[in-house]
Amino acid sequence: TREIHLAARPVGWPTANDFALVQRDLPPLAAGQVLVRNQYMSVDPYMRGRMNDAKSYTPAFPLGEPLVGGAVGEVVESTVDGLAAGDLVLHGLGWREHAIVDGGGVTKLDSVTGVSPSRYLGALGMPGLTAHVGLLDIAAFQPGDTVFVSGAAGAVGALVGQIARLRGAKRVIGSAGSAGKVAYLTDRLGFDAAFNYRDGDVHGQLAAAAPDGIDVYFDNVGGDHLEAAIGRLNVGGRVALCGAISMYNASEPQPGPNNLALAVGKRLSLRGFIVSDHFDRLPEVVAEVGGWLRDGELVADETVVDGLDNAVDAFLGMLRGTNTGKMIVRL
Ligand code: NDP
Q1: Which one of 16, 96, 209, 273 has the largest count of C-beta atoms within 10 Å of its C-beta?
Q2: Band of pLDDT at residue 100, cut at 50, 70 and 90
Q3: pLDDT tens by residue, 279-317
Q4: Which residue's CA is the closest to the ligand 1 atom numbered 11?
Q5: Is 286 in the pocket of ligand 1 (CB under 6 A)?
Q6: CATH number (domain holding residue 246)
């Protein structure tokens, strides 16, 4: 079987040389384990942070060992009660064609008719939960709010905007990195307004899109997006600090927003969160988002890349924005 190892710690932007495709034999299955043939694996922005040798909320990936990450596959062999060959499972040992997983690390999935198993890595999985918890709990979204989300054409952002729309937002605004993605946000996802941050002047473009200000900012990007949002937030505005992808590949610390003092007079709340603290909420999210998906009220597009040989390219591409919706590798 084949798996991808972290060969070197990237400095700044990662390159293909930081990874190695390794062939190895599978050991025999021990008691309490299942052998899974992975069908889909996820590449996510947080993985970039785990490639650094720095203390964080998750440990660094070790060098010379297979990377890990969300994956969905079919059980081939099992020594675990309640799991049998043919079962569809979600687990945390992606970046490899076959995974030997302890029974406790496996969630059996009820295959929902008409929904690809890859959805459990996106709208019905970690990114869906992130969008839901971040918007509704962390940013305390209320119907009638005007919501701005950055990274809006990505896995999390696309769901944030649509959940806000479906739950009665007054206005939903998104930013993304190309003209095509801007059109996608308004034409396919039903955003009220969108802009391309690569055109520059994020402050000015946000002001034009939000003439009456914003009540909620869902931050996937950090940097000048966060600064522009602080400038545009109304009194009592709330920010969910979800990610800061504009800084993940910087080799030097980046400056913070230069207008943070506005948070005092505007009585703003800025709150960070980590999705793994909220996994108990996943069934609720699967029920709500799954219902909207089946009814066609919400779309959860994917950019699918085929083969483990192309998984590194999928990861590097995601960091640069080659994905619309969730980036998925089909194995
Ligand atoms: P996406 O599917 O959104 O993929 C990443 C996107 O980031 C790219 O498609 C690209 O889109 C955009 N991007 C890259 N560089 C920049 C930049 N310099 N400025 C603005 N946008 C940029 O990933 P996810 O939906 O999985 O993750 C979105 C964010 O949510 C990330 O910050 C991630 O770390 C965070 N996150 C946080 C979690 C938590 O627990 N707090 C859990 C899950 C995700 P474009 O073409 O528009 O530039």
Answers
A1: 96
A2: very high
A3: 999 999 999 999 999 999 999 999 999 999 999 999 999
A4: 321
A5: no
A6: 3.40.50.720
- Ligand 1 contact via 159 beta carbon (within 6 Å): no
Choose among 209, 206, 174: nearest CA to 189: 174
What is the distance in A from the centroid of ligand 1 to the CA of 318?
A: 8
Instruction: Decide: 179 and 198 in contact? Cβ < 8 Å.
Output: no
| ipTM > 0.90 for the complex | yes
**What pLDDT is recorded for position 103?**
95
Q: Which amino acid is at 219?
A: D
pLDDT at 57: 85
CA distance 39 to 92: 13
Q: How confident is the model over 95-115, as a mean pLDDT?
A: 87
Mutate to test the pocket of ligand 1, among 245, 270, 318 (most ligand atoms within 8 A of CB): 245
Residue 188 has pLDDT above 90, yes or no: yes
Quote the domain boundaries for residue 210.
126-276
| pLDDT, position 54 | 86
Cβ 177 under 6 angstroms from ligand 1: yes
User: Given its phi and psi angles, is residue 161 left (phi above 0), alpha (psi -120 to 50 degrees) or beta?
Assistant: alpha
Query: How far is the centre of ligand 1, averaged over its atoms, from the C-alpha of 22 (Å)?
Result: 28
Same domain, 272 and 135: yes
State which of 243, 261, 276 marks the end of a domain. Answer: 276
pTM, two decimals, is: 0.97
